[in-house]
Write a structure and sequence with these properties.
binds zinc ion; 1074 residues; alpha+beta; five-stranded antiparallel β-sheet; 22 strands
């Protein structure tokens, strides 16, 4: 009761920030509200405008802006993901009123705590004294009388007496605090001299207030409020000093008091000093504990250094990469991206590096290094028992997530409708048995959930679950298997591989065998003994014995695989098919796989697509190969590649697919090298061919870095080189160099010129000949010129009839140098993917010479793969390389290509460049209002008269759709869905990123689920405005947009949707109507 009464008094006296009650304006009132709010904490712009009571809402925003700028300073956002906040100006903390009427209990204690800490830090009295009050209007002036009436003063003295009386049971600290607050009001009112009738000083003397305050200051019971008492005494004395002239003439008692004031004060100060020393001791104790904690933290960070380093790196590259990737020219010709510019410098120390290279290990070829056995013991995350990978132990798996993806297929037009399969895997290991138990639990939960929501489990449905350890979204498992080399008897560590070249078949024999095999496989007879290797060897006229061949391919006895391991792979394949069916119902059957049958090539393509995506992701993050990869990438590639290799030794055989592949590569039947994805074909070749040549159940080829594995890689490497040489456009390169020089940049050295000059003239000539014969852009130009000259020739026929003029393609040494430079640059994606792939296959680590800060180098990657980095070798007619390249280049498609392009008839071959254009999201307007304007004249395709109600932009391709609207409800399968869901199905392979333009919201959509994420437009306070409620001007935040981009590029949208829905526990929305 007393508490409430005192509080009421405080409100009556203190809450007068209201026009009409005291002399002030509406702005002053707003100002007071803001000050009080900022005393609780620093607010961001939107939080502040939301937190202000609605009665002030009558103010226009501009008033709010004006006021806020007088009381607070805006602190710009520190990290790009933080919001900017307002901080109260230092001097205004004096206006803080702890009993502010609009404070909740929580606000009050927060604000009080903050003020105390602030004052402590400034070595001021630690208390929350009342603020100066504004002057009352004449109508309310008499209210000041409350402060000098008998009742008020009696209450004050009574409360103080109770506080001093140790036996009093009605004492309460909060009473004293409130009384002190009220006394403070009274003293300050007196000091303000607003009210001539107020004579609080005299009245207070009559009641002996000062004496009581002095006593309170010494009272141990009020230790916590001593500073407040001291403050009150100080203010009281200020008042006294002001009254001094009057008091001097008054009773001498008061003067005596003023004189005798020093001693008590010093005793008070002593008390303060004591308190300070106590505080000091406490602080020392705290510091000691903090130091202990810090050292513990440090040692933790040291032992987990990689983790911290990685997270730093990731952060860095997000922020630094933000500006560069956007707008980087991605046309085929200009591949000189920011990151690659560095490589010019790094090439300078190539000379020094060349010495080191000789000792570097290769993972393939005749100089192949041994693999180092690694520790492979784990703890099962479900039963916590130790487990290690070995063929005799129980099978292990790791949860994985498969999804259809078009992320790296979005840019060139001819990918239309195609999609790949992507796998991600967190890498946490569990027993297959433990997982099965866990999974059947999750499955029945899912079924109950679907039942509750009255949904039927569709046929091609992968049950989703979370990794029991890290909650990563999953829908299947991958087997965790030992290093492949460990399964090969001769490949075990310590057993040197036979190096003499006679023990292997050479590359040309390999090519010959592959050619013959292609023919045998396509033979109509169903006799599969035809294509077994002894017979193939005979037919291909290869000189050499069977043992040589067996050594070259590392024929081994079929490893004893767990039946369960096969079960896992079969179910993995099934999961891929399910995912594929829901995206492209026809694709699976088209490939000749009638419904149930397994298609091993689906697994192999998944492997190549996942690795290619990872390469592009790492490139965008500016990460070279040697950099420590996050565990989920590391284990995902290892598990996937090993699983594919094991799978290849017993997977169902598809001779017709293998024959088509071999015909394409070795016999010039089918597509030309221009249309190939060389890495994808390499993976198919590595896994899908050799095992056709052995009788089942006896022996097997396990792709793990045999000589034939090496030849396959060499072949595809040559194919890629051929493609690069054919596509090289000398004019474009010269133009871009000229443009660079004109832009004021130092002319870049032709890094390969010196190399070309020292080549034997025969090889130079070969290069020139190859270039003149096959290079498409220069032949196109030649044809055009020839035609022109022929026309001229026709006109002046009479003059010179005798000779047929031919235009010679110019080709100087510096052109060759440019070409080699271009080729090396174009090999990046293929080589990086191959390095990732063969590291998993052979378990030979990348050498230490691989850069960790700079882009990967052509020569080092070649070295690792056992390839010759010396480009001249490939143009030497004496070697088989040149023959292979001529074969690739003389494909009829390529010969036709130049003519078609120059004469413009027929469909030109759709060239798949060596370097895929980097995926990009749609570039957005800098200013949000420009974006809104840009869609103002777009109409609904189904209703041409009306403006689109909810224009929604696909951020992957930029198309604007009618989102969540009844006018546009296309059918997908047999269900009518929203335009966005329909679009996402084809544009992003079942996943989409949409910007709802009218309300500035970004939506991720995926397989009937969705979530809202932070839009990339922010106001000047660094905040989003979802729903455009606040109406501040919005600008594009590159950082926020980059974050969306990286999530998309890293295939994390499904995961993000699941995570946000998991946390928010939102009611199931009908996302498919979006
Ligand atoms: Zn277990
Ligand atoms: Zn996990
Ligand atoms: Zn789209
Ligand atoms: Zn519409």
């Amino acid at each position: 009761m007393i508490d409430e009464f005192l509080e009421l008094l405080i409100v009556i006296i203190g809450e007068r920030w209201m026009p009409g009650v005291s002399l002030m304006t509406e702005e002053d009132r707003l100002r007071k509200e803001i000050i009080q709010l900022l005393c609780i904490k620093s607010y961001s712009h939107s939080e502040l405008s939301r937190a202000l009571p609605d009665t002030t809402g009558g103010n226009s925003d501009s008033v709010f802006e004006d006021v806020i700028n007088t009381v607070a300073t805006f602190k710009k956002p520190v990290g790009a993901d933080r919001k900017g906040v307002y901080v109260l100006k230092e001097s205004l903390f004096e206006e803080f009123n702890v009993y502010f009427y609009h404070y909740t209990k929580e606000d009050k204690s927060k604000a009080e705590e903050l003020q105390r800490e602030r004052r402590k830090a400034k070595k001021e009295l630690v208390c929350c004294p009342p603020p100066m009050l504004p002057q009352l209007t004449p109508a309310f002036t008499s209210m000041a009388n409350i402060l000098q009436c008998n009742v008020f003063l009696s209450i004050c003295t009574l409360t103080m007496d109770r506080a001093l009386d140790i036996r009093s049971r009605s004492f309460s600290e909060s009473h004293v605090q409130k009384i002190l607050h009220l006394l403070g009001f009274a003293i300050q009112e007196e000091l303000s001299e607003h009210y001539p009738f107020l004579s609080f000083y005299e009245r207070a003397q009559q009641f002996g207030i000062l004496d009581k305050l002095d006593e309170l200051a010494r009272c141990p019971r009020l230790e916590a409020h001593r500073d407040f008492v001291l403050w009150t005494i100080k203010r009281y004395k200020d008042m006294q000093a002001k009254q001094a002239p009057a008091a001097a003439a008054g009773p001498s008692g008061s003067q005596k008091k003023t004189a005798g004031e020093e001693p008590p004060l010093t005793s008070e100060e002593q008390a303060r000093q004591e308190k300070e020393t106590r505080a000091k001791l406490a602080a020392e104790r705290r510091a000691k504990i903090m130091a202990q904690m810090k050292s513990a933290q440090k040692s933790f960070m040291k032992s987990n250094a990689e983790m911290f380093a990685n997270s730093d790196l990731e952060q860095d590259s997000i922020s630094t990469g933000a500006s560069s990737s956007r707008g980087a020219a991605s046309s085929m010709g200009s591949t000189a991206m920011d990151w690659e510019d560095i490589s010019d410098e790094s090439l300078e120390d190539q000379g020094a590096a060349a010495l080191v290279i000789k000792q570097n290990p290769a993972c393939l070829g005749p100089n192949r290094a041994h693999y180092q056995a690694q520790e492979n013991s784990f703890k099962c995350i479900l039963c916590f028992e130790n487990c290690s990978i070995n063929p005799d132990g129980p099978p292990l798996v790791s949860s994985a997530f498969v999804q259809t993806s078009r992320v790296i297929l979005t840019t060139p037009s001819h990918y239309k409708g195609k999609c790949g399969m992507h796998v991600s895997c967190c890498g946490h290991v569990m027993h297959y048995k433990c997982w099965q138990e866990y999974y059947s639990n999750e499955e029945s939960k899912e079924q109950r959930r679907l039942h509750r929501n009255r949904l039927a489990l569709s046929q091609g449905h992968n049950v989703e679950f979370h990794c029991p350890y890290c909650r990563a979204l999953s829908n299947t498992v991958l087997p965790v298997s030992e290093p492949l080399v460990g399964l090969i008897p001769g490949g075990l560590p310590g057993v040197p591989p036979a190096v003499s070249s006679e023990s292997y078949l050479p590359l040309d024999c390999f090519v010959e065998i592959m050619r013959t095999l292609a023919g045998e496989l396509s033979a109509p007879a169903g006799d599969n003994t035809m294509w077994q290797y002894p017979s193939v060897l005979r037919r291909s006229n290869v000189i050499g014995d069977l043992a040589q061949f067996e050594r070259s391919v590392q024929l081994i006895a079929k490893p004893q695989l767990h039946a369960t391991c096969m079960e896992v792979m079969t179910s993995f394949n099934k999961a891929l098919q399910n995912a594929m069916i829901s995206q492209q119902p026809n694709a699976v059957t088209e490939g000749g796989v009638g419904g149930e049958a397994e298609n091993p090539y689906l697994v192999f393509d998944t492997c190549s697509y996942t690795l290619e995506s990872l390469e592009i992701y790492m490139y965008t993050m500016r990460k070279p190969l040697k950099v420590e990869m996050p565990m989920r990438h590391q284990t995902c590639t290892t598990n996937l590649v090993r699983a594919c290799a094991l799978y290849s030794s017993w997977a169902p055989q598809r001779p017709e697919l293998a024959s088509k592949l071999l015909d394409t590569i070795f016999n010039q039947k089918g597509t030309s090298v221009l249309e190939w994805d060389c890495f994808r074909m390499l993976v198919q070749l590595s896994f899908g061919v050799l095992n056709l040549m052995v009788r089942e159940n006896e022996h097997t080829f396990l792709p793990s870095g045999s000589m034939f594995d090496f030849y396959m890689m060499q072949t595809m490497f040559l194919a890629n080189v051929t493609k690069a040489v054919i596509c090289f456009d000398v004019e474009k390169q010269l133009d871009s160099r000229r443009a660079k020089e004109e832009a004021g940049m130092a002319p870049t050295e032709l890094s390969q010129l010196a190399y070309v000059e020292q080549l034997p003239s025969k090889i130079q000539e070969n290069m020139v000949a190859f270039y003149r014969r096959y290079n498409v852009p220069s032949r196109m130009r030649q044809l055009v010129q020839q035609k022109e000259s022929e026309e001229k020739h026709d006109q002046s026929q009479s003059q010179s009839q005798n000779q047929e003029q031919t235009v010679v393609i110019p080709c100087e040494l510096q052109h060759l140098a440019l070409m080699l430079e271009y080729v090396q640059c174009q090999m990046r994606a293929f080589l990086r993917c191959a390095c990732l792939f063969y590291r998993c296959l052979t378990d030979v680590e990348f050498p230490d010479t691989f850069p960790t800060e700079q882009p990967d180098r052509f020569d080092l990657m070649c070295q690792y793969l056992g390839l010759d980095a010396d480009m001249g070798v490939y143009f030497d007619m004496e070697t088989v390389y040149a023959t292979v390249m001529h074969n690739f280049a003389s494909h009829p498609h390529i010969l036709r290509q130049a003519e078609q392009c120059s004469l413009r008839y027929g469909d030109p071959v759709e060239v798949l460049p060596c370097l895929r254009p980097l995926p990009e999201l749609k570039p957005l307007f800098e200013d949000y209002s420009d974006l809104i304007n840009s869609v103002s004249d777009i109409f609904c395709p189904n209703n041409e008269r009306e403006e689109m109600k909810t224009p929604t932009m696909c951020l992957i391709c930029g198309k604007v759709l009618c989102g969540q609207s009844y006018c546009c409800q296309p059918e997908l399968g047999k269900m009518s869905v929203g335009a966005c869901t329909h679009h996402a199905h084809s544009c992003g392979a079942e996943v989409g990123i949409f910007l709802r333009i009218r309300d500035c919201q970004v939506v991720y959509l995926g397989r009937g689920k969705g979530c809202y994420v932070q839009p990339p437009y922010l106001d000047e306070y660094g905040e989003t405005d979802q729903g455009l409620r606040r109406g501040n001007p919005l600008r594009l935040s590159q950082y926020a947009y980059r974050r969306i981009f990286m999530q998309w590029l890293g295939h994390k949208l499904h995961e993000e949707i699941a995570r946000l829905n998991d946390n928010a526990n939102v009611a199931v929305r009908q996302w498919h109507h979006m």
